[in-house]
Structures are given as structure tokens and as C-alpha cells.
Amino acid sequence: MKRISFAKFSPVIKLPDLIEVQKDSFVEFLQANIPPEKRKLQGLQASFLDVFPIASTNGEYILEFVSYELAKPKFTEEEALLTDSNYAAPLKATFRLLAKQEKGAPKEISEQDVYVCDLPLMTKKATFIINGVERVVVTQMHRSPGVIFEEDEETPISIYGKHLFFARIIPYRGAWVEFEYDDKNILWVRIDKKKKFLATTLLRAIGIEKDSDILKFFYKKENIPLSEAAVGRILAEDIVDTKTGEVLAETNRRITEDLLTLLRANASGKIKSVAVIITEIPAGESVVKDMTISETLALDKVKTRNDAIMYIYRQNRAMEYVKPDQAVEYFENLILKNPKKYDLSKVGRFKINRKFKKIFEKLGFEIPKETKKTLTVEDIVATMKYMIDLNNGLGSADDRQIDDIDHLGNRRIRAVGELLENQMRIGLAHMVRLTREKMNSLERAQATPRNILNTQPVIGIIKKFFGTGQLSQYMDQINPLAELTHKRRLSALGPGGLHRKRAGFEVRDVHYTHYGRICPIETPEGANIGLITSLACYSRVNEYGLLETPYRKVVKGRVTDEIEYMTADKEDALVIAQANSPIDKSGKFITNSVSSRHGGEFIFVAPDKIDYMDISPLQVVSTSAALIPFLEHDDANRALMGSNMMRQSVPLISPEQPVVATGIEDNIAVDTGAVVVSEKSGEVLSVDSRQIAIKDKETGVIDVYKLKKFERSNQDTCINQAPIVKKGDSVKKGQAIADGASTKDGSLALGRNILVAFMSWEGYNYEDAILVSEKLVREDMLTSIHIQEFVAESRDTKMGPEEITKDIPNVSKDAMLNLDENGVITVGSNVEPGDILVGKITPKGDQQTTPEERLLRVIFGKKSEEAKDVSLRVPPGVYGKVSDVKIFERKEKLSREEMKKRVKEIEAKYKKESENAKTVYDETVKSVRSQKSKKEELLKAKELFKKQQEEIKKAERFEKDALKTGDELPISVNKIVKVYIATTRKIQVGDKISGRHGNKGVVAKILPAEDMPYLPDGTPVDMIISPLSVPSRMNVGQILEMMLGWAGIQMNEQAICPVFNSAKEQEVKQQIALAKKHLISKGVRKDFLPDDSCRITLYDGRTGVPFSEKITIGYMYIMKLAHLVDDKMHARSTGPYSLITRQPLGGKAHGGGQRMGEMEIWAIEGYGAAHTMQEFLTIKSDDVAGRTKMYEAIINGKPITQMGVPESFKVLVKELQSLGLNIELLK
Questions:
Q1: What is the mean pLDDT of residues 1040-1068?
Q2: pLDDT tens profile 643-676
Q3: Alpha helices in 568-635 (DSSP H)
Q4: Is residue 319 exposed (0-12), middle (13-18) or buried (19+ Cβ within 10 Å)?
Q5: Angle between helices 20-30 and 416-440 in degrees, nearest 10
Q6: Does domain 146-205+290-408 fall into CATH 2.40.50.140?
Q7: CATH 3.90.1800 in the chain, residue ranges
Q8: For helices 1170-1177 and 1158-1167, angle between their N-to-C axes, nearest 10 degrees
């Protein structure tokens, strides 16, 4: 199929690797290939160095961390999946133990490697294999550390009429420091959400003791003559009698008439002037009076640093008697000195320095270094200064403004590496606590790191994080797109994040800073809306964890090819033009005013005012939304459904590439790892269904690519890879050589192009019902394969071991026809509900036996009836073929004969493979003799044969080794048998199908092809959709897709329509006109063709009568979704009951019934069906005695007696009695 692109311009840079966020994060965490001495202070290295070195409480020993290294993983990725194990590498760390000496440096006792834990490794596809299943660690979005200023919502205005604000200094870990005003404009502070105290007390505690020093930071001072004019002013420093040294007036005292008189009398005329603070601040044309710090100081009774620290300690710890040293240590550890307890992190320090840069300069402070992770005196003073300026309304001047917590400058990304680093730190800190206890009671003879370190806490934390953590999720693997989206997901939930019940509207909303960073379309419907989002196509995470998006630089109205990645903060001040702004060849804007963005505003500006330009219209949306052609013609709600439903489409047996595509299908197929890609350029030597051999062009080395065959995905869909190259083809590096699930020719293919008509048909497509042709069933157009796994375990029980065997009591021979001698079903057997998959018996409990019976049992052996049949059977609703059987067994449970037999089986299997390879080689040699290029061909064949033999020997060796070591099984489990059943599911009534525009529906009827409406040339349509499903939903993109799809099919062309850069309506009509012209030239009659809007007269397939109106037809890309009727259809006659309420269980999984709720009862009451209702509420529900009697009556053909009392009524009576009410049943 020829490709034609309707894009008006192409992006300047290619799409990045779509899972690099995950991969890069893990690489930075591990730093595995970097020598220990060159490792940066990040990831695993930072976790160790944050916790170590540690000293014992008595100071006798010191334990230092030297380095860490990862050993070789125990299992490969494939082996881990096969054996239900973890794909993990043992993490070993080297520790050095030192002993303190009376004189000189501590002496080294020993240095040892210590096993820390098995650290799960990331696979090439950015997943983790835990207990044999692939999991994804979702990236978390959380509030960034730094300082945040917000307006107080509870008391917005003080008694002075000023707006009140509060400030929070949020660290990465440690205590929050929060400043707030009360309604009298006094500034308070609270540390770690404890009791509040005056902000000036905190200033004294951090070392600014004197009142005059405090005032100096917040007010300018001036000297004024000691006259009547000084009355009412506030002193900036103490007034001291020069003779006696007596303080006549303290700092911050207001000068009154009395004080003036006193000063004049006492100072005997020597004090001519006094220093006072300037409380009036010019704010534009008016003047603002700022009394905050002065009034706060006036209330502050604490005067020295030690008193301040003691006061804060009492407030926070609520203790009466305190040692001063203890209080000082506590306070300094809390926020000032200990990076282990208080850490702003790199991003927190970066944000504080950037926000306060001007204040630092104004106050003459030195800007703290990036490495300073704790709070400084300067930070606290600057925060208070900023807050006072806001309170005085000096906001817009000097860049003072409140923060928007939903702005992406204030939210950051925690990818897998950082999440793991935090977990390791918690685990190591726990380990250190246990270690310190051991170090205190350590004898010199036993003093080695291995003896004192207990790594159990680390092992436990890592296991918990990957196994049950909220952000470690079972991978969504329905199709490659679902897999990719899961890895690119951002979650605001999880530990340290929000809770879906407490998250308001603002957090969930689309923010203008999401542009180019987070997709505004793709998010779940329901409780998680807006909390779980997706990365935009070109988005990346920088070193601070902030999201960046790329832009082209614009210089003097000319667009350059220079690319700059920008965070949301940096972008706020710039004017950015849209990607589709027309430019000429030299890069100059063609129009005089260009559509641009500035902050949250969309404006038109002159070209010379523009700073940057978007890189591509694609950068706004995520990968899923970027797969929707004509997205710009769809309503946002439907686009959201469309992008979510593409993730639910099941891989079909024979998918097709969409005729109307967006051009990023190839990138998705390659980046997810769904298709097999050649790692080097070279020539294809051999191809079969299981492997492809390629000879490297440069080195001559043969690479063998193994293909996955009918493997089960996490969601029971089928993963099957098939080659798309032929022997002798030359391939380039990065070229797709085999298709996988939901791909075709190396490109993503989620569905089929189907001929659709928009019309109503006998009411069968009412609402969202869809009518389909039998052709889809017959030609397997929407047929998928699903593979289910069934597991049987044989355990040791109290009565003895369970046994997997063919010898099952009370089972007919016919039922065991397909079982092998071990009682396991053979591969290839067709099965249906109730069939035995694995024969298993379990010993029954000891029944009372007579002495005679016991004697006979000793003589003749056990009776077979003593075993109970607990075989694994096919559950209801499952039909299919056994595609694979896997058996895992403890080595000690295998007898020597059994072992020999297994070894022979393995040898026979691989001998056959070796013979097959030899036959192929011999055939090649024979065929080559007749050719000219004989020598070269023979050499190739020989090399390939040699490589194949090596691979066969390697596989045989692996199987034999695995047999010798036996399988690691859980305690008390002797044998596990896994049976895989493959089911072919054709499209049927009740299945959910969908297009790419959120146009979903359920199959309501499957019509014979001859009854479907047909085109004038006799072609029946494949699907009928209701025309009323389009206008109200405003997803018109589907109509344009259909029209262009029709033209594409007729011309055998694939139309590429990138998002916001696709064909206009006029171009679509032109394509239809071209297709018609093409068909007429081939001899097709003109009246057989639709008009330019793709509307045509259809004929009723049953009567041949034409329909009265013209009908829109075309080819739409249709997917079959994972909501299949086979998985949902369920029936119950009698079944299990709940032990507590005695009512039937609910849901398909429990074999439950339908609930008769309050509203259903109203409906029955409306019909006056009293007896029906009584049955529903008693014998069919929780009248235990009644339902037993009912059963007897039906069996014996007796009349049905009166119903009993339902269990729930008894519960009601008991509850009323518990309230002290005496309930009596009189009738």
C-alpha cells in the first residue's frame, strides 16, 4: 500500500524513545557500569551514603560503607517468567568496621562484602518481573519541595484591611515550616504542624537575638531630632545613658510624650537625635504602613537564643523539664543542620534560591550553594520578608506573587529510580537501628560487618514495594499500546501523594502548563479522572524531576532549527508561537500577526515579539491520543473515550494497518518491543516460525532472533510473533523483521478496515447497538485468540501428600481419555467445561474403622475410596484447545528411574531438532550444487548449521541442568502443573466494538451477508451504525475518516493524517473525486459511485428495493474490545451462599445470583406480584429452612408449603433487642 501524507509540515525532531523516562531513571539509580569511585551521589549510592557511616552509642565502633556491586542475575528474563521467579540480581555491599583507639585515628578491624538483598532489575522493555509476572512501576507526580505562598482562605483580611497570606517551606523529607498571619496582622510560625509560636521567636532561635538586629532586616532606619515630631515613631535601637550605661528606652518602643520628657531630663541634653524605623513604604501612588514585625516583637517575651530554643522545644514536644543541650540538638536536627533528618533536596534548594534571588541580593545575603540541603538563616528571613511584602500589597512589583500549586513548576515527577532510592533509604535506616544495638554489645573477636548487619529489613521493604506497593502495578498487556501507555503513566496517587477521595477539582483540572508536557485528553473516566494522566509525546523529565518540552528558538522573527527544552516556570515569561504558524523557506513568519501563547493567555502578536515556536502539533497530546486521525474534529470527551478504548482492543488473528493513519504507528510498535527489530545490518540466512538468523554485514557473526509463539499475556490475550522477512533479504539496523501482537508489517494494527453504512435497520441498531454482517465471522475479520492459565498444585496435607495421578476414584475411562500416564492432559486436546485437566487426589480424613477393617487394610493395602477426587477441571464457559502444559517438581520427589526417563525424553527431543537442522543443511547443499555462486552459498549454509547446533546444545544443557537442580517451589508444595487453554473467539452478539473516536457499541445482531444492504454494484456493507450516534456526540472525525478511508481503499493508498496537521474537508472531497476518476478509468459505471460526500443509494438485501434517502458509506477502522460477552455471560440455579447473611453470593467469579434490591422490589410491588416477591425475599434468598423444604417438595412432587422467616429478619430482631426494645412475634 502506497503512503500519502496530508501533513502540511513535518516535525523538526523525531519522536524520542517512548519509554526512556523509565529506562533512564533506573540506569541513574543503579549506576551499575560506573566504577564505585566515580559514582554520582544519586540513586543507590545516595541511599547508602545518607545512612552510613554509623557509630555505636558508646562510640567504640564505626561502620563505614565502601561500595556496592551487583552480581549476575540468578535467572534470565525468560527463565524468571517460566519459573514464577523474580528477575533480580544479588546486591552486595562492602563495609569497613573501625574500632576507636585512645590515641590516633580509628583502627580498621575488618572489611567484608555483605549480601544486602535481591534487587529486581528492569527488563529491556522497562518492566520488572516479580513472581513470574511482568509489573510496571508507575511514575508519581507530587508537590515539589521548595517554598510556597498562598492566600489564607479562612481569614482573608486582617483588621487593618490587609490581605492575609501563609507560607510553607516544604522539604523533600523532614518537618514543614509554616508561617501564617492572624487577623491582627501578627506573624506566627509552626514547625511540623505542631503548636504555633511567634515568628520572631524562630528568628532568635536561628541566631538573630537582638531586637535591633531583627528590625534591621525588615525596616530601613533614619535618625531624627529628639523633638515633638518624634512622638509616635518607633525606636530602632536602645537609647543608652552615656554616663551611667543605663538603658533609657528599649528597641521597638514607641516614643510617647512621657518618654520624650524622660529622655530630655535624664540625658541632660546630650541626646540630640534618635534612630527610628521607617514603617511607611511607598506602594505606587499610595503609602502602606507596615507594623507586622514591630508588633510581633512587642508580643515576644523570649529574649535570648537559648530561651527561644527551649520554648520551641516545649511547644513541639510538650515537655516541662528540658536539658538545654538536648533542646539545641533537637532544634538543629529539626531544620538546620542534619541532612539525614531534614533534606530540601536539589530541586528544593534550586527553587528557593530562584524565588528569593532578588531578596538575597537586596539584604546583602550570600546565595546558599546548591549542595546546601538544610534550611539557612537567610531562607527564613527571606520567606518572612517576601510574606510581609505580599501582605503590604507589594505583589506585582519586584515579582512578588502567590503560587499556584497546580502549576507544573510546583509539581514534580518521581520516576522508578527515585521511588526505589527512597525505599532503599527506609530499609537501610531500619537496618542501621538494629545494627547499632548489636554494635553496643559486640565482642572484639566477633567484630565483622557480616556479624553485625541484619539485612532482613531491606529485603522486606523491597519485596513489599514491588509486590504490593500502590505504584507497582500488574502490567496492562492487552495490546502493545496498553503496555506503552502504562509505562508512560503519571499518577498523583500513591504514598506521599493525594487520595482520590480528598482530591478536589483544581488538582484534576487541565492547567495551561500541561501544554506539551501532560496530555489534556488521556485520563480515566471515573474516580481517578485527572489524577492519573499520561506524558505528552515529546515530554521529558529533567535532573530536578520537572517536566520539560522542546521548542524552536525564534530570533528576530525568524524561526531557527535550534531546539531548547523548557520547564513550565521558564516558559511563563515567554511568547510561544504555535507549530502550525505558516513560515517561508528562510524561516520567517508569513503573516503579520501570529497565534501564540503567553502564560495562560492565547494571543495574536507581531512576529518580532515571538521568542519560541512549538516543535509539532503532536507535542500537546499523548501517544494514544496521537493515534486518532482527525482528532481536531472530535469533542474532547469522545476523544478521551477513543484514546482509552484503543488500549482495550484485543489483538486479532489477522489485523490490518488503518487506511487512515496518523504516522506514529511504526514508532509505537518498535518502542514497545512488540515487533522484533534487527540489531545490526546484514543478510537473512534462514527464517522459520520460531527463529530468524541474520549474518552481520561487518563482522560476519550470525545473530539468531527467537520468536515468541502463542504466549499468554497478563490479560489472557495471545502474543505470537511471525517473521516478515524472507531468506536472502538484506536488512538494516533498526528494521522490523517480525510482527507481534496487534502489529502488521512492523506497524501498530489494532483492528480492521470495515465497510460501514450510517442508517437505521429495523430498530436493531437503536441507541448504541451495531449490526454486523456474517462475513466478519466467516472470514475471521474480528477473531482473536485468548489463552487462559489453569494451575494445579499437589501439597503435603495433615492426612498425607496429595497426588497427581491418572488413578482417580469414581471417574469413567471416557473422562480420562486425554490424560497421559501422569494424569496430566496432553497438548492439543480439545476441552470443554467439566473436562479433567489434571487428575489429583487428596487423602480423606481418618474415619472410624473397626479392628477387622484395619487388619484387612494391613494385609491388602489401602482402599482407593480413601482418596478424594480434587482434580482440576475446566470451569464453565471455557472451550478451547490445550496449547501448552508446564510441570514443576521438587528434585527430591523425583525417583532415580523417573529422572533417567526425563533425561532420555530431553535427549530425544533435541536429537530430533538436530536431525531436522541436518536435513535442512543437506537439502541446501544439494540445491546449491546446480548454482554458480556455489562456494559462498555452501559457506553460509555451513555457518548457519554450526550456529543452529550450538543453540540446540545450549538449550539441551539448560533443560538438563534445570532437571538436576529441581524447581524452587513454595513450602509444602511438591508439584505444580500449569495448563494453558487457547480459545478462538469470533465476533458475536454482545461483544463490544469501537472506532477510534469514542464511537463504541455492542453487536446486537449478526445478519447473513445477503440480507445486508448492498451498494449499486452488489457489494454488501459489513456493518450498520445508527446515524443518530454522531450529531449529539460531536465526534465528526469518524465521518471524515470513513470518507478518506473509502478513497484510500479504492486507490490502494494509506492516508497519513497527523493530529492537528491533517487533511482538510476540501482535501478529503478531492481524494474522493480522484478515487472516482480512477474507478471510472477502470470501467466502473458512474451511477455505481457515491457523491463527493461519500453518500450513495443503498438497496435492501432482503427485497432489493432501494432505500429512499442516500446513505453515507465508507471504510472505518474498527477494533474489538476486551469486554467480551463470553467473559461476562453467567447463570446460576443454586450455588454458594454467604456464611454470614446466608444469602446467595454475587458476581460471576463466585457463581453468584442477581440482587433483588430495594428498587427491584418497588417494581414487583407495582405489578402486585405478592407471591413472586415473597419467594424472592425468602426461599430464593436467606430462608435456610424454607429452601431445604422447598427442595424436598419439588423432588417429591408435593405442594409447596408456607415460607419460613428470613435470616435477615432475625438479624433485625436481634439488633432491636440490643437497643433494649422487647420484640415479640405474635403471629
A1: 95
A2: 999 999 999 999 999 999 999 999 999 999 999 9
A3: 568-571
A4: exposed
A5: 20
A6: no
A7: 1130-1218
A8: 160
